[in-house]
Amino acid sequence: MKTIGIILAGGIGSRFGADKPKQYCTILGHEMIWYSIEAFRQAKTIDDFIVVVDEKEMQSGRLSREYGVTLVQGGNTRNRSFKNALDYIYEHYPNCEYIIENNAACPMITPELIDRFITLLEEYDFVNTAYKITDALGSYTNRIANREDFYLIQAPDAYRFPLLYRYFDENSELCHPAHQLPLSTREYRYFDYTDNYKVTYPDDIKIVEMLMERRNKQ
């Protein structure tokens, strides 16, 4: 039995507006992607992990040299990149039972959180990072929407690998892997990751640095 991690780092960060992809921008002295790499490296439940990158980074091999990680080339969509990762795991880790993925733009992940998600997979088919909606929620079609019927999903998310590999379709219009699983699968919604933050815009760097400094003080 193997547990494999996936770090998705193939995005170009078009909304971020920097001269390089945001996952390579610096947060408190380290590249943003470094935080995900270190979390996976220190997690007790992870046997190995891979990093999905774009073609340019794949050819340069810089991440592999500097961080000693295994690189997998992504595709032109998130689903294609994720499928490339799943195919690589299927080929190179035939005994893989569990996987957990994180977006390199979500640098607040910790080894303890990874271990918690993998432990939950012993009982559930997949685990989502979930957040309750605290503002009013609108609907384009019905105008009125009950926020209690919905929740937000963020990375990381974890799965029983054989189940996900069976159902995941890279050509689907659904962009979250769990949405492609049968409704009968057992979901755990993890609401306790309270300081997660996805970097989308340049000012988000300051917010993440503040969150990291506060965590370090605690």
List the defining traits of the structure above:
single chain; 218 residues; alpha/beta; seven-stranded mixed β-sheet; two-stranded antiparallel sheet; 32% helix
If you had to describe this structure to a student in words, what would you say it looks like?
The protein has 218 residues and is of the alpha/beta class. Helices cover 32% and strands 25% of the residues. The chain contains seven helices and eleven strands. The chain has a seven-stranded mixed beta sheet, with helices on both faces. The protein has a two-stranded antiparallel ribbon with strand order 2-3. It has a two-stranded antiparallel ribbon with strand order 8-9. It is globular and about 50 Å long. The relative contact order is 0.18. The model has no long low-confidence stretch (mean pLDDT 94).
Q: How are the SSEs ordered, and which strands pair?
A:
Blueprint: E1 2-8, E2 26-27, E3 30-31, H1 32-42, E4 48-53, H2 55-60, H3 62-67, E5 70-73, H4 78-92, E6 96-103, H5 111-120, E7 126-132, E8 138-139, E9 143-144, E10 151-160, H6 161-167, E11 187-190, H7 204-217
